[in-house]
Each structure stands twice: as structure tokens, then as C-alpha cells.
Design brief:
The chain has helices at residues 2-33, 56-67, 123-132, 189-200, 260-269; strands spanning 46-50, 70-71, 75-77, 86-93, 96-103, 116-119, 136-144, 147-154, 158-165, 179-185, 203-212, 222-230, 233-240, 253-256, 273-281, 284-290, 296-302. The chain is α+β, with helices and mostly antiparallel strands and 305 residues long. The N and C termini lie far apart (84 Å).
């Protein structure tokens, strides 16, 4: 009887140990799953631009004339989970990638207000990461002609499309990495920054609470500006009270070029309108422009030390 009790105690201890190991293993898996880097590289992360079909070719031509680069073959596709039809083309410039859409039908909600498309290694893993980082999933994963997509929203109302290709794309590295320019309120700035850093696995490059106000059209004032870098590329956060003169806040992306004057000359020759003439701030010479079709962008050159 005593031997039986001893064996029973040993068996119980062994079972408890095994259960503990399984529990710890599961916990480790959950931690690892919640800390997965899903970014690929900046050349695969595109600004989404929506233009009227009649402006499509003129817009694409003006981009190439301004920045150089190439395009993919233009086509008409359904790129939403519900019925729609759009002209679509990818513009690959040395200073950034753009996905251009010219919808022939009404644009289904919430498409048309996402800023960028981020290529991810796994859509489902990216969705888990987004949720863990406090982002909302506005559109759950759906199939498109070449892979899968989803749309998430970071705190502060920043919409981003995530995409994955069945056949991995292969693009040349960029000569300069563009910056995703995000305007948020002081109420949501910290939450947005924590959420994006958690999702992107990025780092804060600078956090200046007295950045020159000329960058947001208010030259007599200062504001807070945060620069972030990750494998998704660069992101700049502009923390403002929302009282901004046109066109500040309307731009989605800032493009770094070697010579701003030369680039603006090419842009004007291609029908691009200069909205804000060149100004100096934070070792940059910068300008705001509007391309045919309405797309507004910041363009800058950097004075390197």
C-alpha cells in the first residue's frame, strides 16, 4: 500500500510538471506571436493616391517627369472586397513608391482614405500585431488579384492598408526613403506613437517639442515633431492643434531629393503647381506641390553635415 502511494505521488508530480511545461510553452508562444516583425522594406511601402480616371495618365507622367523611375503595366481591377472597378498602376521612383487608383465606380467604404500600403510577411500575423498594438481592423483580410489585403486604423484615425503578395515582389532599394507625414492632436499623440512603435518595431529618431512652426505654415510659433524609423520606412508625426493653413496637413508623403531647385523645375515643366515656395528649416530646404489630379506632396533636400 505504501509503495502504491509513493508511485501515485510520483505520477502526480510528473503530471503536474508536464502540465506546467505545456503552460509555459503556450505562454512563450503567445509572447513570441505577439512580438513578430512583419515589415519587409521601404521600397515595398507605397503611398496610395486616388485620382479621377481622366487625370490618371497625366498624373503618372508628371510623377515620372519629376522624380524619374518606371511603372508597372496599367490595368483595370477589383481591389476591394466588394464590387468595384478601378484603373491601377504602380509607380516606382527612386524616392518612393506610389499605388495609383482611378476608380470607374463609386469607391467602397473605407477605401480612399488610407494613407499607405505596407507589404507584410504575413497578413494574419500583421493583423495580430496591429490588434496587440491597439489598432482597429477596419477591413478584415480579403483576397485581391495578386494576394491578400486588410485595412487597419491606428489611434488618432491613421488608416493604413496591409498587403501580401502570393508571389513576393522584387523592387530595387530606394535612393532616398520618403517620410509618411502624420498629423495628430496632442490628445492622441502618445497613444499613436506607442501603437505605431509597437506594430512597426521602429525607433524614435528625434522628438522636438520646439520644432520650427514654418514647417506647418505658422512661422512665428513652435510645435512638437517626432521622427520615427522602422523597416516600413520613415514616419514623421506632427502634433498640432489642427489650426493649419492650406495645404499643411493635406500632404501624405515627403520626398527627399538631391537638389530641390532642379526637381521643382522638372515638376513645373510637367504641369505641377508649386503651393509653398522653398523654405529652410531643420537642415532642410522644402516645398509643397500639387500634381495634376490633385495629389499634394512635400519635397525636400537635406543638408548633410
Amino acid at each position: 500500500m505504501r509503495i502504491t502511494k509513493i508511485f501515485s505521488a510520483i505520477a502526480s508530480a510528473f503530471l503536474a510538471t508536464q502540465l506546467l511545461c505545456v503552460h509555459l510553452s503556450a505562454q512563450t508562444t503567445l509572447v513570441n506571436d505577439a512580438n513578430v516583425a512583419v515589415a519587409v522594406a521601404p521600397q515595398y511601402d507605397s503611398t496610395h493616391v486616388y485620382v479621377a480616371p481622366e487625370d490618371f495618365d497625366r498624373f503618372v507622367a508628371s510623377l515620372i517627369a519629376t522624380f524619374g523611375g518606371t511603372t508597372t503595366k496599367q490595368g483595370v481591377f477589383t481591389v476591394t472586397p466588394t464590387a468595384s472597378s478601378t484603373i491601377s498602376q504602380l509607380v516606382l521612383t527612386p524616392v518612393g513608391t506610389l499605388s495609383v487608383f482611378g476608380f470607374k465606380t463609386p469607391i467602397p467604404y473605407p477605401f480612399g482614405v488610407e494613407r499607405t500600403g505596407y507589404l507584410v510577411t504575413d497578413v494574419n500575423a500583421a493583423i495580430r500585431e496591429a490588434r496587440a498594438a491597439g489598432a482597429d481592423v477596419l477591413v478584415t483580410p480579403f483576397n485581391d488579384p495578386i494576394g491578400k489585403d486588410a485595412i487597419i486604423q491606428f489611434p488618432g484615425g491613421v488608416n493604413t492598408q496591409l498587403y501580401w503578395h502570393t508571389t513576393p515582389p522584387s523592387y530595387k532599394p530606394l535612393e532616398t526613403i520618403p517620410e509618411n507625414r502624420v498629423y495628430v492632436s496632442s490628445d492622441r499623440a502618445e497613444t499613436f506613437i506607442r501603437s505605431f512603435l509597437s506594430f512597426s518595431k521602429g525607433d524614435i529618431v528625434s522628438d522636438d517639442d520646439r520644432a520650427p512652426g514654418i514647417e506647418i505654415g505658422r512661422p512665428q510659433e513652435t510645435y512638437r515633431r517626432i521622427r520615427i524609423s522602422s523597416d516600413f520606412g520613415k514616419l514623421t508625426v506632427f502634433v498640432t492643434d489642427g489650426q493649419l493653413p492650406y495645404p499643411y496637413g493635406r500632404e501624405l508623403t515627403g520626398y527627399e531629393v538631391t537638389n530641390l531647385g532642379e526637381t521643382l523645375a522638372k515638376a513645373k515643366a510637367a504641369g505641377v503647381t508649386i503651393l509653398v515656395g522653398p523654405y529652410q528649416a531643420d537642415q532642410r530646404q522644402a516645398s509643397f506641390v500639387q500634381f495634376p489630379g490633385g495629389y499634394i506632396a512635400e519635397i525636400h533636400s537635406v543638408r548633410h553635415a
